Every structure is written in C-alpha cells, then in structure tokens.
Amino acid sequence: MNRFTVFLAIGFVFFSCNNAPNGSPMNDESHVEKVKKGSMSNKDKMVARIRFDSLLRLVENLNISEAKDSIPKHLNEALSIAHVLNNDSLRAQVYMELGGYFDAATEYYLMADYFYKAWEYYQKIQNHYGAQLALSNLAWGYIQANDFKKGIEKCREGIHSLKNIRNEKYRSRAAGFLYNNLSIAFLESNQADSALKYNELALISIPDFKEKELGLYSWVFTQFGCIYELKKDTTRAQECFNRSVEIRDSSFIPDASVYAISKYCHFLNGLGRFRDAIFFGRDGIRIAKKFHLDRYLIDVADELRYSYEKLLRVDSAYIYAKMTMEYKDTVFNTKKSIQLQSYSFNRDLKAKEFQHEIENAKAEENIRSEQKLRNIFLIGLILVMLFAGLFLFQRNKIRAGKIRSDELLLNILPEEVAEELKSKGSAEAQLIDEVTVLFTDFKGFTELSEKFTPKELIGEINECFSAFDHIMAKFGVEKIKTIGDAYMAAGGVPTTNTSHASDVVNAALAIQQYMHEHKIRREEDGKLYFEIRIGVHSGPVVAGIVGVKKFSYDIWGDTVNIANRMESSGEAGKVNISGTTYEMVKDEFDCSYRGKIQAKGKGAIDMYFVERSI
C-alpha cells in the first residue's frame, strides 16, 4: 500500500478473521447459486461476509513480492462475493485493495484505474470518507506515473472534497498529505517556489505532533530538504534533512525512513560528504531489505555505489552497483508478471461486471413489480402519517423555537453560565485564581481606517475577527468581547483548567500566522492591510454577567489591565507575553527576553516575545 493508505485509512476497519479452511461454505459453489436464485439465507450471507473479511485481511498481510500470484486470486474471489451480495461498499473496498496492489507493483496507471472505480462506488453510496481517501490515492497514482498535470488536478479535487469531512483531525491530516503531494508534483516539475508554498501548507495542516503523525512529518521535512537543495540553499536543506533524521530516530516508520535516507544520501553526495552518505545509506539498505521496500532500496543502493566510486573503493562500488541491477530486475520481473495477471484479471472482471449488470436488470424488474403493490399500501399509510405529521409539525415548531433561543443564548454566554442562568434565573460572578488573558489591537487603526470606505472597513474587521473566533474555538479559548478594533479572549474561563496559558499562546501564534498570510494576500491584491499587536498575561480575574438587559459575559481585574498593557507595549506582528505567563509556558515555546519594560500605570514589567512552539 502507498503512504496514503497507510496513514489515512481511518474509516476502513475490516473485521479480522483467519483464512477460511478448505471446508468453508464459501468454497462451495452452491452459495453463489443460492444468491443468483435469490434464496440465500441470512446465515449464508453472514458466512459470505466472514469469508470476504478474511480474504481482505489475508491480502493486507501478504507481501507482494512473495504472493504476487495469490493476491489477485484472493481479490477476485472477494469481488465475486461483493457482487453476489450486491454490496457497493464491499466492491469499493476490493477496488481500494487492487489500487494498493498495483501501487506496490509500480503499475501506477492501473493503480489509478482501480482507485477511480473505488471512488465511483463510494460516491454512489455517499461515503465521504471513502471517496476522499480513494481520490487522494488516485492523485498520488498520477504523480508517481509522472502525470503531474492530472496529479495536481486530483489533489485539488481532493482538497475541495474535504469540505464533506466532519472530523477535524482527519480533515487536517488528509489536507497535510494532499498539500505534500502537490509539493512533490511541483518539485518534480522544477517549480521550487510552488513546491515550497504547498509544503508549508502541509506542515501547517498537520493537527498535532503526535506519534501517529510522525510519518507525515518525516515526508514533509524530507520534502523541504529536497526543495532547498533545488534552490541551492544548502544551509536550510541541511537543517530540514537533520529534522527528518531526528523524527526518524524518534519513531520508526519504514517507508518514510528509507525515502528520507535516499534523499539525504543524494544531498550528501552532492556536497562531497561521501562517508556520511555511506553511514546513512547502509542503514537504509538494512531497513529496505527487512521490510521489502525494493523501490526505495534501488535508490539508496545507487547512492552508495556513487559514494564508493568517489572514494575509489571499487570493490564496494561494484557490490552496490550489482545490488541496484539485481533489485531493478526483481522489480521489473514482478511488474511483468503482474501485467500478465492483470490482463487475465481485467478480462474476468469485465465478464463479472457484465453478468452483474444482467442480474441487476432482473432484480430491478422484480423491484418495480413489488413497488406497485407497495404503492397501494403507501397511499393509506401516507394519510395516517399526514395527520401524525400535522401534530409533529406543531410540536417541532415549538421545540425549534426553544432550540433557537438556546442557540442565541449560547452565542453571547459560555455554556456553563447559560445553563446556570436558565436553571436559576441568574448567574453569580466568580473569582478565578488563574486564567490567561489575550488582547489584540490593530496598529495605526485610526489613521489607516480613514483610507477605507465604511463598507471596506467593516468587511476587513469582520473577516479578521471571524478568523480569530475560529482560532479561539480550535484551542478552547473563550472569546470575551470586541471593543472597536480590539479583540479580547481568555483561557481557563468559565471552566478552570491547567492548560490555559499554552492554549492562549498557541491561539496567539495562530492569529500571528493568519495575519501574516492575510497581509501577503492583501499586498498581492494591491490592497491596504492592518498589522496587529498581541499581548498576553496570566493571573486571577473576576468573571460573570453584566447587567439584566442585553447582558454579556465579562472579566475584570488587574490581570485584564496588564494584558492590555502587554498588547500596547508590544510590536506589530509579535506576540508579547509577561514574565508571569512566560514561567508557565517556557518549556513549550521558544521566547526571547525583552528586558523590563515600562508599562503605562504598571511600572517596569518583564516581557518576552514568543518566537515559536518547541
């Protein structure tokens, strides 16, 4: 399977079963005949499904170089079961496995054909996760076939399809792969700037630096190294390759490791660091052999051949030249064998699909006959449902009004405070010992706003503040209010937590990144733009509801005032935090000390600029 299938197959959990014994009911032709005659019992269907799951589990655990003959047979049988069960979801799963099989065999156009079939079936049953995964793999197939135009087109379709995915972490991870693949396509087309742009988007998209994401991080930093190598920026290329090696050492992921090693060895050889290339290359050969990664082994062996040639170590160079040729022959022979099998498999597949179409036509005719009888029953049922519907409509109308009222209340108050207000009729103010407050303000807002039309000014502020709202929601920070061009939020309210400082600093860095990208877009369009100051401070506050009419949730205290001073004492485009906040986050972020700086009405305060997360 390719790296998409390894890292993105979140929605495809197949029930694990051992391979059915020779006496298994599914090895008996009578079960297929029962389906064709429409006489398959629920027990027969269950046995068929168990056999299907066991076949897919078996295929997933087989190595293509050792089982290139048996894998198509197993998948052929699985496809027959999917057809007799008339299950589009099972058909899609088989086509996904076929796509992975031809990917491993480097038959990329066949790989793309089967992922396209899988995509069609997932689209048909409206399985958005499956369709998105199939489309992503389809794009990767075109890229590996050097059809970069189609690969880029399908990557962009894949990114567009993410709007149908509700799981935010899945969506972020999938976006990371798609952006990284776009970067690879542009790099292979010698468009280094576009490659860099999309690889940066890939890095931003990865949700959290957790073990399961390390493979993707390794691909991304390896790609950065290749991009900077093309741009002749040796220093940055070395930094990125070093980062990839660090990730590889912390979490072993075979294909990502060997791929990174092959690219790093190429870079080292280009610098004349042949001994370093040999050091890493030998490790790459060991991993590639252990996990049967023949495609990557060829690249690493060829780099080792080059290294030894340059060091005039002819015997060693010959060993790796021979290894390169032997593995190329192995891959070529496997590819030829699979090509021959694919002709036979495709012929059988078309015959099965033709038979399936005939059976579907007969089934549709039976369905139409049954539909006529059902229609008579449905007319009577509709009359009953009509009266019931009128009753339910009134009840739901009342319920909808209540839901709408609750939504409006939650739009102005935190959920806990809103619930207290509904249950008691009032909500008490509370002292919270430790929160972190964030203030933002646009630099030179008054002077710059005079250059906007009123409509443009409102639109620009709304666009920025809406983005801030989404960022606050992402990091679990509570928006408090906006005052003109100022935006105020707090972590650890109304529900206390121990992560409030890091949550708020992460949100501040996200705002900083958003405003930087927003500035670039505005500059490219020849439009005016705002620059932002961000201030953060931690301490106690009093939090509660203000007033009895048009009430709102607010916080008070010296902590709020100091956070405001952090903002006004900062610099545009920077995140300025107090010494108090620094002590709480110093192990999570790189910060630069500014010294003790005078803050209006507060005297000299230790201040730090946050540079990046660690």
Biggest sheet architecture = 8 strands, mixed
Instruction: State the secondary-structure class.
Output: alpha+beta
**Which architecture of the domain at 430-613 does the CATH hierarchy give at level 2?**
2-Layer Sandwich
- Unreliable spans are 4-32, 34-38, 339-344
Tally of separate helices: 22
Q: In terms of quaternary structure, what is this?
A: single chain
Rounded average pLDDT: 82
CATH hierarchy class name of the domain at 430-613: Alpha Beta
Describe the structure.
A hairpin with a 5-residue loop joins strand 4 (532-546) and strand 5 (552-556). Among the domains are: 1-163, Tetratricopeptide repeat domain (Serine Threonine Protein Phosphatase 5, Tetratricopeptide repeat), CATH 1.25.40.10; 430-613, Alpha-Beta Plaits (2-Layer Sandwich), CATH 3.30.70.1230. The chain is an alpha+beta fold and 614 residues long. Helix 3 runs antiparallel to helix 4, helix 9 (168-188) runs parallel beside helix 11 and helix 15 (294-310) crosses helix 16 (314-412). Helices cover 67% and strands 12% of the residues.
In short:
This protein is α+β, with helices and mostly antiparallel strands and 614 residues long. It is 67% helix and 12% strand. The longest helix is centred in the middle third of the chain and has 99 residues, at 314-412.
Q: What is this structure's SSE topology?
A:
Elements: H1 3-8, H2 29-36, H3 42-60, H4 70-84, H5 88-104, H6 108-124, H7 128-144, H8 148-161, H9 168-188, H10 192-205, H11 214-230, H12 234-250, H13 254-270, H14 274-290, H15 294-310, H16 314-412, H17 415-424, E1 430-442, H18 445-449, H19 454-475, E2 478-483, E3 486-491, H20 500-524, E4 532-546, E5 552-556, H21 558-568, E6 575-578, H22 579-585, E7 589-599, E8 603-613
Parallel strand pairs: 4-6
Antiparallel strand pairs: 1-3, 1-4, 2-3, 4-5, 6-8, 7-8
Helix pairs in contact: 3-4, 4-5, 4-16, 5-6, 5-7, 6-7, 7-8, 7-9, 8-9, 9-10, 9-11, 10-11, 11-12, 11-13, 12-13, 13-14, 13-15, 14-15, 15-16, 19-20
